[in-house]
Amino acid sequence: MSTQTSGPPPAAEAVPEPVGARGGGSPVRGAVKAVRRWWFDPVPGSRLAWVRALVYLFVPYDILVITQDVKGTAALPAEFYQPTMVARWLHLPTPTTGIADTLQWVLLIAAPLAATGRFHRSLGLVVAGAFTWWQLINMGYGKVDHDHFAIVIAVWVLPTAGKARFRDDTPSEAAAWTLRCMQVAAISTYSLAAWAKIREAGWGWASGATFYWAIERRGTPFGKWFLDHPELLRFGQWVIFLAELCAPVILFLRRWWLAAGLVFWLGFHLATWLSIGIHFLPTIICLTAFVPWEKVGTRLSGLRGSRRREDAQAAVLAPGR
Amino acid sequence: MSAFQRWWRAVAAALGIALIVHGSLLGNDDQFPFAPMSMFAFRTDPNGNIDSHYLEADTDAGTRVKVPMSRNGAGMGRAELEGQLFKIMADPSLLQNLADTQRRLHPDTPHYVHIYVMRDRTVLRDGAKDHVVTEQLADWKVT
Predict the structure, then answer these.
(1) Is the confidence at residue B69, as pLDDT, over 60?
(2) Among its keywords, does the record have Transmembrane helix (chain A) (predicted)?
(3) Does B75 touch chain A (CB under 8 A)?
(4) Contact assessment for residue A272 and residue A223, using Cβ atoms and an 8 Å cutoff
(5) Judging by DSSP bridges, how do beta strands B64-66 and B49-59 pair with one another?
(6) Closest in B3, B43, B122 to A201, CB measured
(7) CA dihedral of A23, A26, A28, A32, whole degrees rounded to 10
């Protein structure tokens, strides 16, 4: 395992150019090449290590706070259970308190361990299986929430990302694919939400009073203020509807434009949380797959370096992307 | 990364995208996690109504209280109440369960002696509140 290297990372050149990829002949070949570069253009392994730690450390919070209801629902009589398709296919047993307790303990132990990156594949698969089962129970009592799609995808793609370490910036194609999957899953939560509105309510959704409905029924004191300004709510509906439609654009943005897009969605989630108490934290966690976390690592070692003079040179030379 | 490793990842990604797009185009909640993202996807008519249902109760201490809408209050949340509304209106004796649960969960607080199913109907005009009509939809005298 290499630690900080100086100059261009050597592994970048070691990535084999597949036969047929060079010499941009036909447009089809060019398109295939562009698609492959988009999914597999190597990213520093350290970036993946940070995202992986965030997701796996979020899992205990999710099951203890956000979806803690699972323990209560698992104790309900069996006739309330309405298993969803995947649960039926897998012949998962009807939830019991014992199953919920077991899943909870497995996740509470395995997820923080997986966050360290040790035994990333086996621990990751344990977390993926147990967390998905937990969510299938959560959605198995007549109400399906949509904030957990991206994180369910995330726990399944993370074990494929290979050995990634916080202090290892070696570029990795496997890490690139994993992060892309998380990004696509998170962003499709938005764009497909726009589609669901068109499918259910038609293009007129944005001219309705759905935000007013939400705040009237479950608004916080902050949210209720907007009831005196329904025109603001209608404007907000247009903004969100159009932003959801355009959400896939964020997949192709870079640097400050990308940052601006992420800040927009964070602002949206903050606003809905403040006004109607609904947050989308599991989706937000997957948005962190857009962040160049390796720069945080570089910055941290930079701080240490300025304290300890002998490290300063190494920090300056650390590669940043 | 070998060609095979790249291939199975490409196939997996294509499959995942196909599943979620299919779920959104044609599917329903049953296909979780590949279900339509239908949160707040319904449209509220700016000149329609917003209904909110809740329970009130007379207690043996002579007070009229709102029944807390949570699993810890009386074993039922608002979404569950609204999901079962027609059933309860057809057979208000189902409310007896709530009184029994409340007695079991909170033996020290005043007990419910009469439970009412209430509805606040906010009537909208041009997307803002015009007036609110409060109605009693059903009731049950606890035995």
Answers:
(1) yes
(2) yes
(3) no
(4) no
(5) antiparallel
(6) B43
(7) 0
Q: CB contact, 8 Å: B30 with chain A?
A: yes
Q: Which two tokens stand for residue B38?
A: 């239908």
Q: Could you read off the pLDDT of A223-261 as tens digits, one per residue?
A: 999 999 989 999 999 999 999 999 999 999 998 999 999
Give A134-163 pLDDT, tens digit per residue: 999 988 877 788 899 999 999 999 999 988
CA B73, B76, A106, A63 dihedral sign is: negative
* Distance, CA of A45 to CA of A120 (rounded, Å): 13
Q: What is the pTM (predicted TM-score) of this model?
A: 0.82
Return the bridge partners of B133, or none.
B121
Sign (positive or negative) of CA dihedral A98, A101, A105, A106: positive
Where do we find the tokens 């361990």?
Answer: A113
pLDDT one-digit tens code per residue, A159-192? 999 888 888 889 999 999 999 999 999 999 999 9
Average pLDDT, stretch B45-55?
A: 90
Residues 6+ apart with CB under 8 A from B143: B96
Query: What distance in Å separates the CA atoms of residue B89 and residue B119, rounded to the nearest whole number?
Result: 12
pLDDT at A283 over 90: yes
Quote the DSSP letter at residue A65: I
- For A111, the token pair is 């997820």
Other Cβ atoms closer than 10 A to A305: 18
Which residues partner with B131 through β-bridges? B123
Residue A283 contacts residue A266 (beta carbons within 8 Å): no
Residue B39 and residue A214: Cβ atoms within 8 Å? no
Best residue in B32, B53, B124, B131 for a mutation probing chain A (most A CBs within 10 Å)? B32
Nearest to A196 among B33, B38, B128 (CB): B38
